[in-house]
Amino acid sequence: xxxxxxxxxVHYSQFPDRVYQDYLDSFSFKQINxxxxxxxxxxxxxxxxxxxxxxxxxxxxxxxxxYSLCFDKTAEILAKDSSSLNLIGLGCGGGEKDKLLLxxxxxxxxxxxxxxxxxxxxxxxxxxxxxxKVRGSFANVAVAPFVCDLLQSNDLISLINARGTxxxxxxxxxxxxxxxxxxxxxxxxxxxxxxxxxxLFSANLAPGFDYLxxxxxxxxxxxxxxxxxxxxxxxxxxxxxxxxxxxEFEIEADSHNPEFQRIAAYFSLKRDVNFKLEERLIDxxxxxxxxxxxxxxxxxxxxxxxxxxxxxxxxxxxxxxxxEEGVYLCQKV
Length: 333
Description:
Blueprint: E1 9-10, H1 16-28, H2 41-54, H3 56-59, H4 61-78, E2 84-90, H5 96-105, E3 115-121, H6 124-137, E4 142-143, E5 146-147, H7 156-161, E6 167-173, H8 182-192, E7 198-204, H9 211-218, H10 225-238, E8 245-253, E9 261-269, E10 273-277, E11 280-284, E12 289-297, H11 300-309, E13 312-319, E14 325-332
Parallel strand pairs: 1-5, 2-3, 2-6, 3-4, 3-5, 6-7
Antiparallel strand pairs: 7-14, 8-9, 9-12, 10-11, 13-14
């Protein structure tokens, strides 16, 4: 009977009252919180389809090789440590990369050196998908999925650490860092890390020597019908109509960190839009723009510089031949 039940831990950041307040604020402030693009099974499936179609990690053999080299180096480091292990997949998505990592380090963990996998995501659907994917491939791995909002979960690491003793944490953050303001997410990642822990993350990069031209090159990975259909879902579900506006993509600078550029998607209103969410009136005017999404593009030197400012050292990095994605193995200084 137990195989018919999935025990999931839900952090208070994703309790219904808090989630709904975040939802209302997204529409009131005309900036949709990224987490509401993954809230339903329908949205998660649309995102997985986009990932399959456009992600270099799914389409580019050299990108897959970059992950494999990173994971081999991780296994080399872990082999020198006798501690039991936690693999904490922050923003685990569909769990493919965490599963690949486990295949590279599976010879390291055992009954004497157990490993627990914590797939963590804002989406219940994706957390369960990742949990079941890993459990189906690694019977000797304990799995405990968590649902949380990372920006409101500074205490999550203490909750996980309290479940065991003498453990080394391997924290993965694949494909996530571009979708957060650097000044918001990096302090949280720093808080998650203790000396000796490992941080593995990937970032979307701007290929070539010209930063802005590189971002322009990858814009079609975002400005396409699959992505537009995914992004508009949150509006349609709230009662907005397709004919109310158009989705437009652009490259914009970060006002707080002007050295960083990001790709942003806006819903540009062609007419006035009024609707109610519970008792809150949402009143949008023709010509206004609703920000649906943003994704930063980095370069490895930019990543090295900003991580150093937060006391995180890069032990090694690997880039796809296209230079569109990089994988980084890090530790706290």
